[in-house]
Specification:
The complex is a heterodimer of chains A (about 230) and B (about 130).
Chain A lengths: L2 E6 L3 H14 L2 E7 L2 H10 L4 E4 L2 E2 L2 E2 H7 L5 E6 L5 H6 L4 E4 L4 H21 L6 E6 L2 E6 L3 E7 L2 E6 L3 E5 L2 H7 L5 E5 L2 E4 L3 E4 L3 E4 L2 E4 L2 H10 L4
Parallel strand pairs in A: 1-2, 1-3, 3-6, 6-7
Antiparallel strand pairs in A: 4-5, 8-9, 10-11, 10-14, 11-12, 13-14, 15-16, 16-17
Chain B lengths: L16 H8 L3 H27 L3 H11 L2 H4 L3 H16 L7 H32 L1
Classes of the chains: A alpha/beta (about 230), B mainly alpha (about 130).
């Protein structure tokens, strides 16, 4: 199956070249080409893709702003002519860095990395443990998945809300998204991960989890609906 | 990318043929398309440099040069790409665009020279591809 992607790039010739590489590979479908931060966020708010080819210096801010503002975490390949951005790329967990202009072979190498990660994650279906350990108040606390209602972002920290207690830990939703048991938890908004079994009802843009109203982003809605047993 | 043509094309000395082959191999129709895309957007991308220099906006000037810089890689002119990169770095160090006047004039001359070379190469590619069709 082809991977879906968007190209975020303000230089037309670079976008065209990248699109040509995707077509030639026969392994990626380009869903959109966005030339600035706002366009990219708007597209990703309502569409989900497997991969983002992301230029860093684009009108309206930095490419990283797009990653900060979208509700889910697609794979990312940075495409820039400036190697200085590689460090930031690591912080955002990007898969590869293509320095413009790059050869088709280099493009294929990057694509292989993406495909390897995608295969591994679909084979493992992430972490299947029934518990997690979090570092809170200077100690490691064991939390059973069944006890967690939801996880909420608080800037550089996250709040684990359980049936009994709330725990604050230094972490991010983006990082936890891949660490929690993905059969049991789902990211529903850029600031929230919920325990699927604890959701009492779903409204237009809200989930009710044991009395707490959790926002549901447009981009996550289709996946959330798919994951719930709606008959 | 298009179906490959099989006849060879000789690039002018101004173009780094190895660089071009590394990206497009010998797909001359595709190379022609890419040169055309560069030409279609050249004036708009260059005007970003002109406007921001005149407005003494160093950060936007740097961004405009940063934007146009990889263009020259796509047409086999890594030397021009490097000149843009050097100018971009000078923008970080300068306090005002006045300090960059000489470099700026040199950059504009380089861009103009590159623009003409891209036009010439594109014309050659068009002729080549028509005769190969």
């Amino acid at each position: 199956m082809k991977l879906s992607c968007i190209i975020v790039e303000d230089l037309q010739v670079a976008a065209d070249y990248l699109k040509g590489c995707c077509e030639k590979s026969g392994r990626i479908e380009v869903k959109a080409h966005c030339t600035n931060v706002t366009e990219a966020i708007n597209f990703l708010d309502t569409n989900s893709v497997d991969l983002v080819f992301l230029d860093v210096e684009i009108p309206g801010g930095q490419g990283f702003d797009v990653l900060d503002k979208i509700a889910y975490s697609p794979k990312v390949i940075l495409t820039t002519s400036k190697t200085e951005y590689a460090y930031n790329g690591f912080e955002y967990n990007v898969t590869d860095f293509l320095k413009k202009p790059f050869s088709y072979q280099r493009f294929l190498d990057a694509l292989k990395k993406i495909e390897a990660i995608t295969t591994v994650s679909s084979n493992n279906d992430h972490n299947n443990d029934d518990h997690i350990f979090i570092k809170s108040d200077g100690k490691l606390v064991r939390l059973k998945n069944d006890d967690i209602l939801y996880i909420e972002s608080m800037g550089d920290y996250v709040k684990f809300v359980s049936t009994e207690k709330k725990y604050v830990a230094l972490n991010t939703i983006k990082n936890l998204e891949t660490k929690v048991n993905t059969r049991q938890f789902i990211k529903v908004h850029r600031s929230y991960i919920v325990n699927i079994s604890k959701v009492d009802n779903i409204r237009e843009n809200t989930l009710l989890v044991k009395g707490a109203e959790i926002p549901l982003s447009k981009a996550s809605k289709a996946e959330v609906i798919r994951r719930f047993n709606i008959i | 990318m298009s179906d490959r043509t099989t006849t060879s094309f000789i690039f002018s000395d101004r173009i780094d043929a190895d660089y071009i082959f590394n990206m497009y191999e010998d797909d001359y129709l595709y190379i022609e398309t890419m040169f055309k895309t560069v030409l279609d957007h050249f004036d708009a991308d260059r005007s970003g440099i002109l406007v921001n220099f005149q407005q003494n906006d160093l950060e936007l000037l740097r961004k405009a040069v940063h934007k146009i810089k990889p263009t020259f890689g796509f047409v086999g002119m890594p030397d021009v790409l490097e000149i843009c990169k050097a100018f971009e770095n000078k923008c970080y160090q300068a306090q005002s665009t006045k300090e960059l006047e000489i470099d700026y004039k040199n950059l504009l001359n380089t861009l103009e020279d590159a623009h003409q070379a891209i036009i010439n190469e594109h014309n050659k590619l068009v002729s080549h591809n028509r005769s190969a069709a």
